[in-house]
Specification:
It is a single chain. By secondary structure, the chain is α+β, with helices and mostly antiparallel strands. It has helices at residues 10-22, 30-34, 67-73, 82-103, and strands spanning 46-54, 57-65, 107-114, 120-130, 140-149. Helix 3 (67-73) packs across helix 4 (82-103). The radius of gyration is 15 Å and the shape is globular.
Length: 150
């Protein structure tokens, strides 16, 4: 299988990667993504979230979180606590994960967060559903984000 071009923007790269692995299906399986190589230049900006279905609720657990994603969500007063960064991440994006599960479609977002006078955090994010079949619930989400602070 041909790899996506490395010069693409992260969101475009991951969407192309996802499309290549889904073929004629609505979305690819988690196994097909995990077993395949994601370009090392993007690994720090990528994450995989497991979706745990319990009655009418969804719970989320990180299977993989790149270093840059983790840094963005770390607690500045407790930088050594990786678990806290993961919890912050899941809480911050829970509603976006729910949208992917409900719509069963990729979501791309460009977001600006104003953090005081003349401080802006800009990020671009993509969330891509993963599942074993078109008729089964989404069981994971492949995502990526890059950000810059102005």
């Amino acid at each position: 299988m041909e790899k996506p071009k490395k010069s693409l923007r992260l969101t475009d790269y991951l969407e192309e990667f996802w499309n290549m692995h889904r073929g004629d299906r609505r979305f690819p399986s988690l196994d097909s993504i995990v077993d395949e190589y994601i370009d090392e230049k993007t690994q720090d900006d990528v994450f995989i979230i497991d979706v745990i279905h319990q009655s009418h609720n969804h719970h989320f657990a990180t299977r993989y979180m790149g270093e840059n994603v983790q840094k963005l969500h770390e607690d500045v007063t407790d930088r050594e606590n990786a678990e806290k960064a993961i919890n912050n991440f899941i809480e911050a994006y829970k509603q976006h994960f729910e949208r992917v599960i409900t719509s069963r479609r990729p979501i791309v977002q460009n977001i600006e967060i104003h953090q005081g006078i003349n401080k802006v955090l800009k990020y671009r994010q993509i969330l891509l559903p993963l599942g074993d079949s078109d008729n089964e619930p989404i069981n994971a989400i492949l995502g990526g984000m890059r950000y810059k602070k102005d």
